């Protein structure tokens, strides 16, 4: 199909009602909702984003986008009406205007579609979804930037731009190919311009300001839901990430005087089963310090060192664990918590934040002043040493 009608009027000039009217007259019409809502138009948003990021007049495959349409109104088509008229020289141009003039158009636009540009709830959708990022980039550059020249925040300049744009279209299109139209005129002028019979039904009256605001409220509700789900997902990912690194910093688990243990929180790497029926887990680190699939840990056997069970990552060593293993090999004595302690600052911070009391020092000497040897002392009183 080739375009027969090119809508040059801005959005919020009755374009949705005109869209419905043209479809009723047998002219399949393109509109912004075809970009957003029509699942059959996969790839259209990417196409318009490409248009937005190219210079005016750059050739594009318009036939691919308008293959199933004979008319277009509203954004984004109105932003490239000159290019479309050059591509389809036999098409007629339909310039829709707001019934209450430039002031009415500005009030309607600033209260609806432009209002969303500065709404943080819509920014959430833009940040969190590929569609939001693409649509935001396209609308800012093509609609609000190129066509409206960034004047929407200034009422007087925006109204002046609307009037100047109207005169530009009138001057560029021959009168016999141009219809300046408001939806309050009904079927008559539009049908005479297109050479078709007038329907007996009333002219469509769609997309008034109240209905648009309802759509905006629905999108805002959806953004709240998406934000909540995203926060929950981030918390879950960070929890798993921190838990994995925290468990990577421990060689064993021992209950502290506060009732919290490394085994409870991070998984046991010692020789006993974890409390509360929790399974023994492996830190998600391979022998080279990179992330890998979790592996179940086995208790240390007599004469076996932790290095035999799992190689240490590059960023840390297990000196305390090795000493504990040697102590087991020597006489089967259970290593004390001062020797099975975190070897990374991240693991120490994780334990301290949960209330555990393990020593911050990396020395293996017993010291009554250290929290693990003296339950009366808190690990929070100790400063982490380099």
TrEMBL record:
<dbReference type="InterPro" id="IPR027417">
    <property type="entry name" value="P-loop_NTPase"/>
</dbReference>
<protein>
    <recommendedName>
        <fullName>Sulfotransferase family protein</fullName>
    </recommendedName>
</protein>
<dbReference type="InterPro" id="IPR040632">
    <property type="entry name" value="Sulfotransfer_4"/>
</dbReference>
<feature type="region of interest" description="Disordered">
    <location>
        <begin position="358"/>
        <end position="386"/>
    </location>
</feature>
<feature type="compositionally biased region" description="Low complexity">
    <location>
        <begin position="320"/>
        <end position="332"/>
    </location>
</feature>
<feature type="region of interest" description="Disordered">
    <location>
        <begin position="305"/>
        <end position="344"/>
    </location>
</feature>
<dbReference type="Pfam" id="PF17784">
    <property type="entry name" value="Sulfotransfer_4"/>
</dbReference>
